[in-house]
Structures are given as structure tokens and as C-alpha cells.
TrEMBL record:
Protein name in the entry: N-acetylmuramoyl-L-alanine amidase AmiC
Signal peptide, first to last residue: 1-24
GO biological process assignments: cell wall organization; peptidoglycan catabolic process
Residue stretches of biased makeup (Low complexity): 198-211
Family indicated by similarity: Belongs to the N-acetylmuramoyl-L-alanine amidase 3 family.
InterPro entries in the cross-refs: AMIN_dom (IPR021731), MurNAc-LAA_cat (IPR002508), N-acetylmuramoyl_amidase_3 (IPR050695)
Species name: Methylovorus glucosotrophus (strain SIP3-4)
Amino acid sequence: MNLLRTLKLACSFLLVFFSLQAVAATTVTATRVWPAPDYTRITLESNKPISYNLLRLKDPERLVVDLVDVDLGSNLKSLSDRVLASDPYIRQIRVGNFKPGVVRMVIDLKTDIRPELATLLPAGEYQHRLVLDIYPALDPLMAMLEQRETPASSAEQVMKPDVKVLAQPETAAPLDTSKAPEINLPGKPEQTMAQSMPEAAKAPESAKAAPVLKAEPNKSREGGRVITIAIDAGHGGEDPGAKGANGSYEKNITLAIAKKLKQAVDAEPNMRGVLTRDGDYFIPLHGRVVKARKLQADLFVSIHADAALSSQAKGSSVFALSEHGATSAMARLLAQRENESDLIGGVSFDVKDPYLARTLLDLSQTATINDSLKLGKSVLDNVGKINNLHKQSVEQAGFAVLKSPDIPSILVETAFITNPEEERKLNDENHQDKLVASILTGIKKYFASNPALAKPKMAEK
């Protein structure tokens, strides 16, 4: 009898122990894969921070991420289904139990890459996240610029943001290129993922057809040089931006308008448009600035859709950078909200690159801000002809995305996505065309009064 009681107590203890272990394990609540020409991001969202170890293996090229004390649930098991066959960097992902308490994620690669791995604290609608950014080993933007200087070059290269997400030293093991024991995980065929947000990342159109920024024939007339307009579609990827009254996401509307604006700019003689992003993926705010500067853009235009607690708020606005505080409480709050994109999208604020530091901190060139105000007024006046204006003048605040010291930069809040009527217009292609035409007219009028100065050869087509 005593033996039976002892066995029962032992079984009860084991049940409680394993139950506590199960409760203690980290649960992955969502997985996302964001393929893009610039880089591919893999996101594991979880109820608690994920402890991990990263290995890099050769012959064949692959990354191994060991997840410590993580449950192998359905979300992790389905991660392989998120990978597109057209992903420029990932061939496939295999996930399985490696040993007790460790889930191994093996990422088979298509090319030489540079991985960046980090954990992110909860932000916006997201819980804890482990993000793995897979960049090409060589900077394709710089390769494109070098090839553009060669007359015979086609320069069919993609653009990449100059951003580094830092791995956390207390959890990440150093990269090891030696052979390491690997579990035999069955591969799954690559297939298109379910397109829902935020449960699964939408596959950008750019990932379906290897997007490139091509060096087109010089279309300048009468000897004039080609003017470069950097067009920035606000938000993207992990950062959806504001959500509309009827469920629209700001990141999708801004991309649609930005693409139309590029087409309109490209149709103009002596002008070309370049997109900071051409699909649904995240680019840090300073990465957008650096991209525009590397391309030696003449102007930077960031497209957004405003949001407010009241569904009655309406109208378009245009903003420029301020060195000395915001021009209104609304402008200050808006800049604060827009600057949180990096927090939501996921990037380290510890900027150590000296080039980046100069880009973000050298704001002494007030002439650039004055030009931004002139550009903003010209655009605002013309947008006001096709839409209500929320403010009748250009406002200023400390928008991180406008902090280029040498490129006139504006942020256009096209309308309030939280207003049902304006949300409907923002999704209407005819209204988008009118918005694009008004913005382009404003840009052309600005250049009519402020001719573009000469740029180095590599900025021309």
C-alpha cells in the first residue's frame, strides 16, 4: 500500500513537473517571411523572448538557428510554407526537434549572404519578435552605381538599405563556419503563402519577378540633365502603418500611390523616379534617407496617409523638417508617430556607422530646409485643388525620414485613412491618379523657380 501511494505521488510530481515545463516553454504565435529585392526578413513572434544560437554552415550554404526552450507548434512547422520559390536568397526552410529543449531551424540558401539576427521587444500590435534579416553579401546598390559609370553596363541591380540590425551578444553564439551536427529535417516544396495581415506576411509583387532598377537610355532633351526624384512609400512589411476605418492598411495605399507617381515622373522628359521600396517589406527610416543620398536624388517625397482618433478628421497635409521644434502640437505628435516606424518595423537605434551618423545629425544646412518648404508649398497648393487641406500651410517637425542634409525633402499626408470617405478615395485609382498629377505638378513648378544644379555623372541615366 505504501509502495502504491509512493508511486502515485511520484506520478503526480512528474505530471506537475512536465506541466510546469510546458508552461515555461516559449510559444511561437506567428511566423512571417518578407521576401524583397533588398533583403529577406524571417520573423518569429512569441509570447516571451526567444533564446537562440546562430551557426553558419558551408557546402552547401545554410544558416542554422537553434531555438532554446521553444515549443515546436503548428506555426513553426508551417514556416517552410511561407518561402516563395522566387525568394532571391532562401531556397527552403526546415524546422524540427534537434534535441530535448531545442528546436532547430535550417535555412538553405541560394547565394552568399550576410545575416543579422536580433530580438525585439513588444511594439504596436506585436508581441516579442525574433527577426533574421538575410542580406546579400555585396551591396547591390553600390554595384549598380559602379556599373552606371560604365557606358556599356545594363546596371540591372537591386537597391539595398544601408541598415544593420544588431544581434544580442548575451544570447547569440558566434558564427561558426565549420561542420556541425545537423538533424535530418524533411524539406517541403516551396509554395506561395497565405496572404493575410498581420498573421502572415503578404508576398510583395516584387518578389514574383526579380525586381530591378534598370539604367534606362538617357531621355534628356536639349542637353538638360536627368533629375532624380526619390519616392518613398511610407511603412511596409512588419510596419503596416495606420489602419483605415474599413480595414485598409496605410502601407498598401502608400505603395500604390508611390508606384503611380514613379510612372508619372518617368514619363516626363529629363526626370526619373526611384522607389525606396517597390513591395511589401520594411525599410528603416534612416535606410530610406541613405538610399536617396546614395542615388544622389534631387528631391525626396515620402507618401503617407494620416490617422486620427476622430473619424471626422479630413484633408491633406504637407510637412518639412524642423531644426527647432514642431510648428504645432499636431505636427509634433505626427512626427512622433511616424518616427515609431523603426520601433514597430524592428531596427536598432544604436547607429554606429559614421556615414549614417553624419546623415542623421548634420542638419546645419538650413538652405535645404528652406528649399523643402518651397517644394512643400508648391505641392500643397496643387494638392489643394483636388482635395480638402487639413492645414493651409506647410508644417514642420522632426521627421526622421526627412533628415537628409542635402536633399530637399517633404512628407505628404495624402488624406486621413481613418475617415471612411477619404479611405474610399485613397483606394480609388482615379483619385490616386489625381493625387499623383497634383504632386507632380507641384514638383515641376518648384523646379521652374528653382532649377536643379549639376550632379556628378553617376546620378544621371
